[in-house]
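Ticket #4471: structure output looks truncated?

Reporter: J.K.
Steps to reproduce: submitted the chain below (257 residues) through the standard prediction queue, then opened the result file.
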Amino acid sequence: MSVDCILETRQLTKEFKGFVAVSNVDLKVRRGSIHALIGPNGAGKTTCFNLLTKFLTPTRGQILFDGTDITNDKPAAIARRGVIRSFQISAVFPHLSVLENVRVALQHRLGTSYHFWRSERSLNRLNDEAMALLAAVDLSPYADIHAVELAYGRKRALEIATTLAMDPKLMLLDEPTQGMGAEDVDRIRQLIKKVAASRTVLMVEHNMSVVSSIADTITVLQRGATLAEGPYAEVSKNPAVIEAYMGSANVELKGAH
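Returned output as attached by the reporter:
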């Protein structure tokens, strides 16, 4: 595993009672990059994420993170290594404030989640760190409102803040712009670009305009196997990829830049 590669899979495979959901996937994610995993519905993208975070156990193959074989690690051990996943469905505490949501994630990281006797000073330190994270995702003005009151796009921004609170080396974003209007999509696109400046991002994303504008490398899955890999400009002109998405090799896969 090369030094600039933070995550690698070798022949990663998952079978469910004879159905092959992920088939011999060799994935290499470069440190400090935004890597997008795309493909038609049923291509195996979310299953791949579930394998990487060990919510599913591979049938065969290897997963290496930072040069260490993590194939047999449990989900909690994977998270402790710095592989943190943001889920497809918004996963925030609706009746806690925006600030409290981020503070819970910070307390979890520090291992003090249930230490109610911690000094007020330590909680103030968490407040300062939580506010800095909220500023990073443009949510400072919403710190004191309940998460349930946030608009959908801002709720996803809060989810990214709580993911950042876990201090990830590798952020896995599962459909971060799903169900959003154009304005929210653009906000989250800018946010991903911003947070990726100091860490690595692996994302599953359907929105081609997002993928084309921020991803350094794209891996296309079809029926659980790797169909193509490379920069968007190259992958979008690949006849096999166009065929998979459009059903016709005469149409170029387009994304707004």
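Triage note (M.O.): checked the attachment and the full token line is present. Confidence is low (pLDDT under 50) at residues 248-252.
Status: closed, working as intended.
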